[in-house]
Amino acid sequence: MLSDALFEAETAIHHYQTEMPDIYGPVKTEIDALRCQMVVLQMRLDGLLPEGWLERHPIYVAALAGDIGPQDRFIHDGDDSVLAEFWAELKAAQDAAEKAP
User: Fold this and answer.
1) Exposure on the CB side of residue 51, measured as CA atoms within 13 A
2) Long-range contacts of range 77-82, CB-CB < 8 Å, 24 or more positions apart?
3) pTM of this structure
4) What is the predicted pLDDT for the residue at 101?
5) Average of pLDDT values for 77-83?
6) What DSSP line would sit under 40-83, residue for residue?
7) Angle at which helices 28-46 and 2-19 cross, to 10°
8) Which of 2, 24, 45, 100 is least enclosed, having the fewest CB within 10 Å?
9) What is the pLDDT of residue 72?
């Protein structure tokens, strides 16, 4: 799937950026902008969230604004706190929907 290819490419780009900052540092702004667009498209193609929730996803919102930081912290650094509040809100909404008559 295209979303898988985007994920793999974004991961490889991040790897090269962090492993070779002397080469890619001068174009970090441009690379990060490209990575943001890749993340946004990947998340839209995945379509894993209920309607209306993608627009609230912290990584998606940040990437739309040109900030790759939350993606790096969650995916590449393993910082689950990036999405902790979002997942709690989504779960609460789903639980409430299940209990509604």
Assistant:
1) 0
2) 82/58
3) 0.90
4) 73
5) 97
6) HHHHHHH--SPTTTGGG-HHHHHHHTT--HHHIIIIIT--THHH
7) 150
8) 100
9) 97
